[in-house]
Amino acid sequence: MASFRSRLFPFGSSLLSTSLAHSGLIEGVGGNILRRFSSVVTTEQRVLKFGKEEKANQILEDEVAKIRHEFDAAKERFRKIPVALKEMPKIDPKGIYVNKNLRLDNVQVYGFDYDYTLAHYSANLQSLIYDLAKEYLVNELRYPDSCMEFKYDNSFPIRGLYYDKLKGCLMKLDFFGSIEPDGCYFGRQKLTRSEINDFYGTRHMGRDQARGLVGLMDFFCFSEACLIADIVQHFVDAKLEFDSSYVYEDVNRAIQHVHLSGLVHRGILSDPKKYLVKNGQLLRFLRMLRENGKKLFLLTNSPYYFVDGGMNFMLEDSLGSQDSWRELFDVVIAKANKPEFYTSEHPFRCYDVEKDTLAFSKVDAFLPNKIYYRGCLKTFLEITKWNGPEVIYFGDHLFSDLRGPSKAGWHTAAIIHELENEIQTQNEDCYRIEQAKLHLIQEILGKLHATVANTEESEEYMSLLWELNEERQKARNTMRGMFNRSFGATFLTDTGQESAFAYHIHQYADVYTSKPENFLFYPPEAWLHVPYDIKIMPHHVKVSSGLFRT
Fold this sequence. Notes:
- This protein is α/β, with parallel strands linked by helices.
- The protein is 45% helix and 12% strand.
- It is built from 19 helices and 17 strands.
- Strands 1-16-15-14-3-9-10-13-11-12 form a 10-stranded mixed beta sheet, sandwiched between helices. A 5-stranded antiparallel beta sheet has the order 7-6-5-4-8, covered by helices on one side.
- The longest helix is centred in the first third of the chain and has 48 residues, at 31-78.
- This is 5'-nucleotidase domain-containing protein.
- Pfam families: 5_nucleotid.
- Belongs to the 5'(3')-deoxyribonucleotidase family.
- InterPro entries: HAD-like_sf (IPR036412), HAD-SF_hydro_IG_5-nucl (IPR008380), HAD_sf (IPR023214), Pur_nucleotidase (IPR016695).
- GO terms for molecular function: 5'-nucleotidase activity; metal ion binding.
């Protein structure tokens, strides 16, 4: 037996025997001893493991309890408006917000679009465009007569929506191209998350799916988006088969006809008080630029007679009886056909205002008090010798107005009229409180998720998680309800992410503001800098969750 043990355990055999004897487990040799020794070790490991799990669970319970206490304390503070919140500076609704640093002292040339840039329109304009396009669909494209009963709903659309020509959905996307869960409609019916998944399989729009999307980015798109949704809903209610791409093509054709035919232009000029907003501040701004030696040009797709009628009406209370708005500009270009203007080589034509005709002679210089049609950027730069960095162009359409100039090296200024109202909403105490709540809940949720990253979820954890998610959703819904009832804020999604529209502003606009005349609040030699603490959009309110920690 001794020799066998020596062979089996050449080192420390007596120690092993003693250990086994004291345990009362010596019942044999070889395999039996090893198996029983192994069972002892396994039992000991289980005991140790159970002890560790008990300790880990206790730590988890303590951590969850701490987070619960932090959440309960925060809810008590939610009932009061913190003094610090009232002392926070307000964001300026008329401010200029900077995506790329801009030195105005280096800018010598100011260019402007007309519609929704120099011209301010009332809310009545969208109804006019909607009604004219609706009539075209019925009278010319033979849509059902019942479509004539449609009414424009100004509470439905926002700028920056996308229409899916393949599936017929109208949606709001976030900065990363994902569908906003509460901002996707089929007709006028909001889709649930499960319905969005049925349509797309995921909220994120892949490259293939994105090919069917068309962006509705300018101010005229409000009527277009509403009419598309109303027609889709009409076909659904009537149980009529339809192709979603045909709906878009027909509505877009109708909207284009309303503009190109001059219907909307004549409608506006027939009752300018109903559609146009007078603006003496605009004249002050343009004159200030002239007095500081700046060159000015007007570049618009609208016909001259429409621009002339609108400018005369808007400035009639500010201009002298002998003055003309045309004297404010070094160059006036109408019917420019943007965005093709930036890439084509179409020649300029001089327009005879009295005869309503175009001259046949070549344009190789821009003469004072003359009007020019069509043309292209290449010839414009050859004639003016205005270099890209010394030019800034103002426009409201991110693609037609600003993408071309941005690529050409001009500075760009986006005019976003709804910016002013959205900032005013963000400045309200009720909005800032909800935003601070949301940020704090997000922080607490992050702590809770980190606590149980590698641990079994307890009942206390699940209860707290449910309450936090409920409170977070309440804050999101409250904030969303302060903006558009259907799609929420223009620049933000419900989760606090920037929208796809905000992404395009960030991409194509060096600066953005609600009106061109807001530049009056800045000296013409000002240096406009990107804020040091910018996240994405510099106008967004930055409310700290720490407001509820004191």
